Fold this protein.
Amino acid sequence: MIEIHDITKVFQEKIALEKVTFDIPKGMVFGIIGPNGAGKTTLIRILNQILIPNDGFVKYNGTLLNEAHVRSFGYLPEERGLYREMRVMDQLVFLGELRGLSRKEAGDKAMKWLQKFEVQDWAKKRIDSLSKGMAQKIQFISSVLHDPEVIILDEPLSGFDPLNINLILNEIEAFKNAGKSVIFSTHNMDSVDSICDEVALIHAGKLIAKDRVANLRSQHKNGDFKIRFRGNVIAFANALWTSFEIIESKEIGDDLREAVIRRRGNETFNDVYNQLSSALELTLIEEKLPGMQDVFVKVIQEHNQHEE
Amino acid sequence: MKNSLIIARREFMERWNNRSFRFMLFLGPLLLLAVIYLLIISGNQGKSNLNVLIVDPTGLFEEKIVSHPSESITYYFYQDYVELEAFRDEKKFRTYDAMIEINEKVLINKKVFLFYRETPNVQLKMKLKFEVERRVEEVMIEQFTNLGIEDFRKIKQPLNVDFRDVNDPLNQSENEIAWVGYSLGYLMIFFLGIFGTNITRSINREKANRVSEVILASAKAHELMFGKILGILWASLLQLFFWIFIIALGLWVFEYFIFSETLGLGHLEGVQVSDQGLSQFGQSNPMMNYNTQMDLFFHRINYAFLIPNFMLFFLGTYWVYSSFFTVIGAMSGDESDGQQFVIPIWILFGVSIFAGYNAVQYPDAALTQFFTFFPWTAGMVAMVKITAGVTVVSYLFLLLSWLIMVLVGAVLLYFAGRIFKNGILSFGHKLTFKLLLKWLKI
């Protein structure tokens, strides 16, 4: 487990992080989210000991974070960088050695990963002969080559095409299943929805929310339900009576419609079912939780209002 | 340290994998050998016919020279004193190419001065020396001994003929060996320029490629910095070793295959020549091929002492300059910044080259002493002094200057490390002095 205690980082009088404190539990995909310039990358650099905080400290498995710990981390920075004139295999071996692998180990592991990604033919290619997406794959391999315990990925999906995004997401899932911690920084909320178990929301250098993704979405729900039914639209509207309003309704098939309704009071899932089931043939009722994008905007707006 | 070595190996391999680097391993020393070859050849050029005025106010030579003087030299006698300025400037002496002063002490101190207007070629110099020496021998036998000429030659001391340019009678420019040291210092600066700029460019490229952050997640900033400096040093040392090896091989080929005849009797000082030798002079005698440049390259330079000292001072100078190149790379906002800020270092190189020149011309001047201990010029001055020959005490002073270089380099690298640590992740910024101070403080 990683414990972040009262981390403050100041760059030439500009506060990048201010007394940020939270824990990152082991064995989950943890998102550090926030708008651009919030301080995510600064925090990640501190976790990698690239930057030293002005105040506060980080603990890893109960002891102060040290060089040996960081060596067992994997890191994919937001600003991707490889030596353009080096060959793929040489590059991977070099970075593997810096992470403590022997030349042979690094070479063997690199080949395994290249085979896994079905790109073993690239081993002797120079980086500058690869496309951006191909280079991204190599960069990803370089960050996990040494089988790290903690994998820190700063905006890992940017620059990948949908197929490769899927590939990376599968790997992240595999790391999680192997009991490793994945720290994931992004401002792309769709990816948070799909892969993060827990998130810390940072805004203007401060931690403003930290919880499990499901909890945050639930806490910020609007009381919306998605309904799919067969039957008359008028009967549907009448059945809702005064407890719900229709937000959206559309025909999605022969006599099959889908609608989003919003409760006016404290009505529950059961109330929806009871009110509609006698009038219509229901095929689906689902409580519609807000996406992390909505949660993100809402939390920041609330925070800004509170600050004012 | 391990990380620094891994980074150093990558830096070295990057250069090794570069075709132009491997090409220069051979091309550079071959070009230098070509220059040495031309210098040796040029030693045989110069004026090939001489009108020589023998100024003999006491009439010691009795207006005579050897019985079969060389056809390429015509001797004229003048039984009065001639001032050097008069010989140089007066119209009546213009027809003479050289003047030999025979003063009354020549029989005692065995020293004769020869002033020339235009450097005679080496063969002519040797003929002159030979013929004047013969005449001095005859005069000595006539005046002081009852010995025959063969017996006399067994006990005689050689005549020292001092060749001097009429425009440089004090022979201030006659210090070729110091110029060799200067050339070595120049070579040192040349290597520093190339490989120092490599440090700056390498840092700039890492910043532009954004690879610095990847490295810094695995290695400390100072490990990256030292790795870079070390790797580029290895590459420069490899170049130097190749240069030394190929040049040594080339000189060996010159000595044993190309100029083998010339070098067989190259060092002529004090060599005795028989009358038969005299008659053959200028025909087939290999002694005729004596060449000052060859003497310089093959006999006067103490390579066993010079090469280790060259390496020592090269390392010291690289150490002291590398901090500057590192700082420039780390604080640059983009690659063009790096090119601009290298200018102050080129100015220091210029000062260094001047310091070398100064050390050749005025080895004992106060300014030379200053440059000896100034870390950015010490390497150059040391090369000049070591090549020209040093006493134990002055060598110890040079070692002290090396120590100062190393200490100053260590202090500079400490500050360079601070700037490097803060600057390596910054790119695209506008570099200001204020920012530099902040990076130093953080």
